[in-house]
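note to self: dont lose this again. the chain is below, predicted strucutre after it. 185 aa total, dont forget to put it in the shared folder this time
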Amino acid sequence: MSIHGTTNCDLYSNLLHYDDSEFLILSFNARSLSNKIIHLKTLLFLVNPTIVLITETWCNSSISDHSLNVDNYVFFRTDRCYGIGGGTIIYVRSDIQACKFEDKSLDAIDDSTWVTVNCGSQNYLLVGCIYRPPHADTKFDKLLTNIFSIASHQPHTFKIIGGDFNLPKIKWGLTPVPGRYNKLV
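---
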């Protein structure tokens, strides 16, 4: 499914007419998931996406797994251990086999979650959800570039990395990309 609309109305219209036999991944920045969980539950009930990537969950150890449960989905979360903000979570429809993917190299970015999805026929999908803070320095960008490289060399058949990369200086679809972000794009 591809969505070419430019308005929220077009997006919602296309999502509501989506054939759930297709593979659909949604990705968005929540800026606090716990106070929007009812909206997430409604969206997932109406659209029934295969996988959902959410950044800036703002979750921490005081927010229970139970409070983040959504019927017919399993989730894998990574909470920020310091300060306010950050955090990532991946929801996977419960009819899909998935498990958290642990790799110390990929976990070098605190605000990231990695999941392996069984696609059948011995095909596996690596799904990464990453949050890059808006004022990340060049050291973080080099780390992110390295993470992309490490992920690309994993034995999974397919790889998808999504999230909020906070790259406002990039004019998507135009070239050249500002030098600092060349290797990220």
